[in-house]
Write a sequence for this structure.
């Protein structure tokens, strides 16, 4: 009442109408999902590394079995023990094995060599290329005698074929170091067989032509040859019975890593 004015109070009122859903939408916290995704990525990488290690182990075991099979073949024991290392063989739990007629073949061999005196040709006969121990008749043919090498074996020897299968030693890229130290087992067996029967050894080195220059590959293949030769000499193989060769860069095998090797072959005295 002591101030000038109309002495009235004004009030304004209104309303709001919302179409659809009302309220606040809370944002989802993505942190747990991010952490879970990171853990899954790390776990997948770990499993990949494990699979790679198992794959390398399987490949190494497979190559070891292949080399052991070659040794059994050289020793003439493949028919007897080959089923132990045969990956695709049939065991007693997978049906009936296929008959290889080993008993019948053994009987035939004994009947065919019933006059054999029990002396091994390797112990009693010195065999060389162009100078065999078989006796030739008037018609130029050969007559088989007990303890001698038959004509088919003579032709095989004269043709320059190695005894059994070649044994390969594989090397790391651009080095003269073996990919696996277990390959030394093959060197031990090769040296033992060569010394026991007085065999000659031919060592041929090679490199992968897809990497390196021709000059580098030539030097690398020679170094790999020298490495295997030195290991054979350490095991008692005489130097005069070893023939060295190198092929330089090659691309004969798949995968390319298989071309990084040194091949060892056994022969009768050359």
């Amino acid at each position: 009442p002591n101030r000038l004015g109309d002495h009235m109070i004004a009030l304004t009122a209104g309303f709001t109408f919302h179409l659809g859903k009302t309220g606040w939408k809370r944002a989802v916290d993505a942190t747990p999902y991010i952490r879970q995704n990171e853990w899954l990525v790390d776990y997948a990488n770990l499993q990949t590394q494990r699979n790679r290690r198992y794959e390398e182990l399987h490949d190494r075991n497979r190559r070891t079995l292949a080399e052991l099979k070659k040794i059994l073949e050289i020793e003439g024991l493949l028919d007897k023990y080959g089923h132990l290392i045969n990956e695709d063989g049939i065991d007693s739990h997978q049906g009936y094995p296929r008959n290889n007629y080993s008993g019948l073949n053994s009987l035939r061999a004994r009947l065919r060599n019933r006059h054999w005196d029990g002396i091994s040709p390797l112990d009693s006969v010195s065999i060389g290329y162009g100078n065999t121990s078989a006796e030739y008749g008037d018609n130029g043919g050969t007559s088989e005698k007990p303890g001698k090498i038959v004509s088919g074996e003579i032709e095989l020897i004269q043709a320059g074929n190695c005894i059994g299968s070649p044994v390969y030693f594989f090397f790391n890229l651009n080095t003269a170091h073996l990919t696996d130290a277990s390959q030394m087992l093959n060197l031990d067996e090769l040296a033992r067989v060569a010394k026991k029967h007085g065999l000659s050894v031919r060592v041929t080195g090679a490199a992968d032509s897809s990497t390196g220059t021709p000059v580098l590959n030539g030097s690398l293949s020679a170094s790999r040859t020298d490495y295997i030769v030195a290991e054979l000499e350490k095991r008692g193989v005489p130097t005069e019975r070893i023939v060295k060769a190198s092929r330089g860069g090659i691309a004969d095998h798949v995968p390319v890593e298989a071309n990084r090797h040194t091949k060892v072959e056994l022969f009768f005295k050359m």
Observations:
- The first strand starts at residue 135 and ends at 136.
- Residues 89-95, 122-159 have pLDDT under 50 and may be disordered.
